[in-house]
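We modelled the chain as a single entity of 306 amino acids. Its sequence is:
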Amino acid sequence: MSRDAAKVDVDVEGRTLTLSNLEKVLYPEAGFTKGEVIDYYARIAPVLLPHLAGRPTTFKRYPNGVEGKFFFEKNAPSHAPSWLKSVTLPSPGSTKSRETINYPLISDLPSLVWAANLAALELHVPMWRVGPRGKVHDPDLLVFDLDPGPPATIVECCEVARLLQPLLEKDGLTAYPKTSGSKGLQLYVPVTGASWEQTHSYAREIAQRVADEQPELVVWQMKKDIRGGKILIDWSQNNAAKTTICVYSLRARPHPTVSTPISWREVESCTSPADLVFTAPDVLDRVEREGDLFADVATGANAGRL
């Protein structure tokens, strides 16, 4: 495929897609182009798609690159191809006064390449899935989003993750760490048979407990004036209306960093923020070498009960 033309038609698993502006630089500091964004998503698809499957996806689009304006797109656009799968769900409290939203479902490689061609750099998904007939299921994931207040960094996030892990294990829960691709760290916990009320209250209880035991390091409240130098355990993401960055998604940072699964060994050995910064090429190499460290998260293996 030549990148010289402004537009080029490609065949992706039997679907014809028109890709455009492949030479456009979306990450100026790194010189990373739209073509390279599409290439990354196409190559990471085998491990990414299982994590998107059944999850209504919100795009964060950067048509003029990470230094330009962006917008969130929940509704599948009117120009979406007819074969794109989607699901229409109620939208209570919508900021745009919508009664429903027709969310795209990124279920295959053509859908993923189509989204990447929209400069949908970031893919955000909820902690729940929909069934084949569009029924919203109970949450299958619980998340702790560890957010550092400067001058704290992901190094302190790792310290907090190490405090959380044994508490979760004691309750029969298995936590899987990943970088946010930005500044923080996230722990994903596969769960089964839990309601939103249960995941929400459990996450809050654990966050409060750790904050009470480690007040110099951890906060559980969202107030900005108490977060300096500490790690916020954001339990509030356990809400049906909220989304988090999907594993393996790019982030809109100066460089094409990725929300990357990491091992507990890497959590324990982290001494510098640079230890846990992974760009798109890094992640492709990691997956080729180590496979999907989040595979059990996708399948629900080791899912625990609250």
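As a brief sanity check on the tokenised model: The first strand starts at residue 7 and ends at 12. The chain is about 30% helix and 20% strand.
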